[in-house]
């Protein structure tokens, strides 16, 4: 019999069809079915799984999955997978780096600019009928050109944001657990700094690092206190990196000018204190959301799954294996 694969929600039928060449495929029609016991049940007789950030897969979900050998995540971040628990069971995990880099960098830059120039705040104000005429003192924002961009997490996406910043005449500083090779620093025109110094120096700080338990609330009250009161904070990474109550305190007290958030600790729930802040741009985890990019993510995930399960041109060598993440 052919190996069995579970696809956890409808993605793109034409791309998923490549799985039918090798596998017996079971598809779940709705993401709302993905309670832990439903995931465990779906994995129970699967050899492989194509999953998304909607699916949390840890020790409990794979406990009864005796045949499972590969889990392909459609997403670059994979904190929805307990990679250690999977590895302990000999289950290979993959993600989708590379294909979403530029689209996600575009969005990170846009969100930073929207926060700095108060674009959504201004639109809400206009739609509320409060605009009485051009106002010299209305809605003054922060400069982008000529300012200092701080990037925390200088992987592919961080580097993409740094390259965009050059066009805006920004000075680019970054912190990463490992310094980039000099040639890459030159290409990005970016200089490495200690994390504490980055918080203090940045006019606009953008988070693009993976979430790990060691990075939990890496932006806490103490980190926010280091930032300039005129600065902005943008995150397109994972919600758990920021202490959202501490951020709301800083935004309300005027100790931080503005924030742009695409990710939230309890998403889809958004901290009500953030919802109450005017000076934060809130978007529903859409940084990689363009049709070509979402298609490329599914395509890479399919390639990964086929290869991880020992089929196709890359049999046994999936293009993007993940390893347990480490702190930045
Ligand atoms: C989206 O957040 C991703 O990690 O791909
Ligand atoms: C990881 O998220 C990256 O920057 O590619």
From TrEMBL:
Pfam families recorded: 2-Hacid_dh (PF00389), 2-Hacid_dh_C (PF02826)
PROSITE patterns in the cross-refs: D_2_HYDROXYACID_DH_1
Record domain D-isomer specific 2-hydroxyacid dehydrogenase NAD-binding: where: 109-287
Keyword tags: NAD, Oxidoreductase
The keyword Transcription is annotated on this UniProt entry: no
CDD domains, per the entry: GDH
InterPro entries hit by this protein: D-isomer_2-hydroxyacid_DH, D-isomer_2_OHA_DH_cat_dom, D-isomer_DH_CS1, D-isomer_DH_NAD-bd, NAD(P)-bd_dom_sf
Domain D-isomer specific 2-hydroxyacid dehydrogenase catalytic: 29-309
Domain of life, source organism: Bacteria
Entry similarity comment: Belongs to the D-isomer specific 2-hydroxyacid dehydrogenase family.
Name this protein carries in UniProt: D-glycerate dehydrogenase
Organism name: Luteimonas colneyensis
């Amino acid at each position: 019999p052919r190996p069995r694969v579970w696809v956890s929600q409808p993605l793109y039928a034409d791309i998923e069809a490549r799985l039918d060449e090798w596998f017996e495929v079971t598809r779940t029609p709705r993401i709302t079915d993905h309670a832990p016991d439903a995931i465990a049940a779906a994995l129970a007789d699967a050899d492989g799984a194509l999953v998304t950030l909607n699916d949390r897969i840890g020790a409990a979900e794979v406990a009864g999955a005796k045949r499972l050998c590969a889990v392909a995540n459609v997403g670059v971040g994979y904190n929805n997978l307990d990679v250690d628990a999977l590895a302990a069971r000999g289950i290979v995990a993959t993600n989708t780096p590379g294909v979403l880099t530029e689209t996600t960098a575009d969005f990170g830059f846009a969100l930073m600019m929207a926060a700095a120039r108060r674009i959504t705040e201004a639109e809400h104000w206009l739609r509320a009928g409060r605009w009485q005429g051009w106002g010299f003192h209305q809605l003054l924002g922060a400069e982008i050109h000529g300012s200092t961009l701080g990037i925390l997490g200088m992987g592919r996406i961080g580097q993409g944001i740094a390259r965009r910043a050059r066009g805006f005449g920004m000075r680019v500083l970054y912190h990463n657990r490992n310094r980039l090779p000099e040639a890459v620093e030159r290409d990005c025109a970016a200089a490495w700094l200690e994390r504490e110094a980055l918080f203090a120096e940045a006019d606009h700080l953008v988070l693009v690092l993976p979430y790990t338990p060691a990075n939990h609330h890496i932006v806490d009250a103490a980190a926010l206190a280091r930032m300039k009161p005129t600065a902005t904070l943008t995150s397109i990474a994972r919600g758990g990196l920021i202490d959202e109550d501490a951020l709301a305190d800083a935004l309300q007290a005027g100790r931080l000018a503005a924030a742009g958030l695409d990710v939230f600790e309890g998403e889809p729930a958004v901290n009500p204190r953030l919802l109450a802040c005017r000076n934060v741009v809130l978007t529903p985890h859409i940084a990689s959301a363009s049709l070509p990019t979402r298609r490329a993510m599914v395509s890479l995930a399919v390639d990964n799954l086929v290869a991880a399960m020992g089929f196709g041109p890359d049999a046994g060598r999936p293009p993007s294996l993940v390893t347990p993440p480490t702190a930045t």
